[in-house]
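ok posting inputs for the zinc ion job
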Amino acid sequence: MNVQCPVCLGGEFEDLIDFGVIPRSGSFLPSPGTAFRTMHHAFEFCTHCALTRQRGQADDSPDYRNVNRSTRRQMPVYTPNLVSSLSRHHPDRNDLVVDVGGNDGAFLDLVAEAGYANRLNIEPSVPLAELSAKAGHKVETVHLDSTEANRIRKQYGPAGGIFCRHVLEHVPDPFGLLSAMRLMLKEDGILFVEIPDARGILHRLLGHELWDEHLFHFTVENLGRLVKRTGFLLEEETIQPHRGGTNILFRARMDFQQKSSSFPEKAVFSDVEACRCFKTRWMDLRLRIQSEMKGWAEPVACLGASHPQSNYILFTEIGGHVDFLVDDDPHKVGCYVPLPQPVPVVSTAQLFDGPPPGTIIRTAFGCEAWMDGICLPLAARGARIVEPYLTSNPRLYRPE
Ligand SMILES: [Zn+2]
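and the output
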């Protein structure tokens, strides 16, 4: 990976944290003996702008052509607001609306409902692109770059609105992707960018969000600086709560003046300081959870079986004490997740059929209602409930 920081063009990076060689996320093994892929999972941060990135990633783009992971059910509750914002700021219903990395077209469905007839999803995943086409959206099954942007603009015309939701953090060249989107935009068109807010990781120690598919973690300040450097004028920034963390939403237009704007040094300083403290704070959490773990009654269950759970368990190194994961996704139930030893996934129904676990860890971050439905009755039957970040328990689980 390029030494230079894509945001501030500085070249000084320091280590954020190094988790060593661990299983890749998304490994669901059909049997405990199945082989799985591993990776060296380490992060570094720019000492000037606090941009955090994976260390030692290859320069070649991750290949999403065969990734078949629909995000339809994970749409944040505020998503319809994005479409209303498009209606307010670019009301022309005949103009092209593009969703970059639009997955199965779930977001463009909302754009269609708002009356925009000319919709294009640029989605490299073949199975997801097919779903999107079936839903009635035009699809380009490519990884977007400037060459593709110029071709697409020629073929479909310039776009009145471009959405790029939870994509920028996945690509090795975020400046290149933003520049490609600028090439496709109409002069008065609008760009919407949505990404997870790295301040959850840095300031609130939500280390489970250090996912191996996220090559970068942005803050409001460094994302703003990158968007401006690409030639956009920021019109609105919003922070929205989502799944226990927050998301950053930017609305921008083309900036033809390219006025230099100041960088809010104070906020950046506190983000850089948070980067410098992250490793010490995480190690402290790991020690505390490992010390608590000795008192946990068996069996121990962790709620959820996706990457936030495997990240949390691998990064705290408590996997040796976890007996099973609980998840209601039928594709995961019956499989094994390497933590790093294989741990089975059971459904809620299977959990309630058996004797109650001794300990339940509330690792289904942000899915409070689902976790309550499990924890409240099982706590009444004697299970001990543990908060993963050892925060004070917001609900009372002790049987009366
Ligand atoms: Zn930087």
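notes: Residues 5, 7-8, 10, 46, 48-49, 51 surround zinc ion (CB under 6 Å). DSSP finds eleven helices and 17 strands in the chain.
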